[in-house]
């Protein structure tokens, strides 16, 4: 260490020198040596850089190097992330995962092998042929199941998710769509015709009742006049006195 030690340092240093940089750090900061060419310079950081782990001591907090295959570590013997080409398993960086585990190239970890899982089979579908359930005697029925868990790279693959088998049913005729439509149209026309007939009959009935009512009213008005005229004619008629 260069004897020229300064107390007025920058960058979190408690003590420093022009030649070696930081010699000690302020509280809660970590001291680490950075190599620049053939020279090492002391620096003070709030957290340790990649490839180092921090250790706190009563007098100083230091950053120490992880193992060569670790990218980050918790302690020297416990890695939290491996360098390229290695897989993390239980704090260690391995080139090949142990038996019963597989390498996950996405997380670069050794993980458990996952096998495919499926649901139970559904009930068999109705017997069908060419999408229809009528017009045939021999057809097919199917059943399906769902995939609940997709397998990992080395896991057991998923089995078939559908099955089909032959089936026999009692033959029944299919109703033709055109004929059914024609029958419905005829029924609708007949219904409209019946309704029109009933409407005309009701109209005629109402007209007849109205005519009868008007006739009675006219009769009630003209009857007294007819009787009065008849009485007057009888009064004016000559009296036969020959007898």
From TrEMBL:
Bias-annotated ranges (Basic and acidic residues): 175-219
Gene Ontology MF terms in the entry: heparin binding; signaling receptor binding
Domain annotation R-spondin Fu-CRD: ranges: 11-110
Entry keywords, A to Z: Disulfide bond, Glycoprotein, Heparin-binding, Repeat, Secreted, Sensory transduction, Signal, Wnt signaling pathway
Subcellular location: Secreted
GO annotation terms (biological process): positive regulation of non-canonical Wnt signaling pathway; Wnt signaling pathway
Function: Activator of the canonical Wnt signaling pathway by acting as a ligand for LGR4-6 receptors, which acts as a key regulator of angiogenesis. Upon binding to LGR4-6 (LGR4, LGR5 or LGR6), LGR4-6 associate with phosphorylated LRP6 and frizzled receptors that are activated by extracellular Wnt receptors, triggering the canonical Wnt signaling pathway to increase expression of target genes. Also regulates the canonical Wnt/beta-catenin-dependent pathway and non-canonical Wnt signaling by acting as an inhibitor of ZNRF3, an important regulator of the Wnt signaling pathway.
Family per record: Belongs to the R-spondin family.
Record's protein name: R-spondin-3
Organism per entry: Pomatostomus ruficeps (Chestnut-crowned babbler)
Chain's gene name: Rspo3
């Amino acid at each position: 260490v260069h004897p020229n030690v300064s107390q007025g340092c920058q960058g979190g240093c408690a003590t420093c020198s022009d030649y070696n940089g930081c010699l000690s750090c302020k509280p809660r900061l970590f001291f680490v040596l950075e190599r620049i060419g053939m020279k090492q310079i002391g620096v003070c950081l709030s957290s340790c850089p990649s490839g180092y782990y921090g250790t706190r001591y009563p007098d100083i907090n230091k950053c120490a190097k992880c193992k060569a295959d670790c990218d980050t570590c918790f302690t020297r013997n416990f890695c939290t992330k491996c360098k390229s080409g290695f897989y993390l398993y239980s704090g260690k960086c391995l080139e090949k995962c142990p038996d019963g585990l597989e390498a996950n190239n996405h997380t670069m970890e050794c993980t458990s092998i996952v096998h495919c899982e499926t649901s139970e089979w559904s009930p068999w579908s109705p017997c069908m042929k060419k999408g229809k359930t009528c017009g045939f005697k021999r057809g097919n029925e199917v059943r399906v199941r769902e995939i609940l868990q997709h397998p990992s790279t080395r896991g057991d693959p998923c089995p078939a998710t559908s099955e089909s088998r032959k089936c026999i049913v009692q033959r029944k005729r299919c109703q033709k769509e055109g004929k059914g439509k024609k029958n419905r149209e005829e029924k609708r026309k007949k219904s409209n015709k019946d309704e029109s007939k009933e409407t005309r009959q009701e109209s005629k009935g109402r007209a007849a009742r109205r005519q009868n009512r008007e006739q009675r009213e006219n009769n009630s008005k003209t009857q007294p006049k007819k009787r009065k005229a008849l009485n007057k004619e009888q009064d004016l008629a000559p009296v036969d006195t020959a007898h």
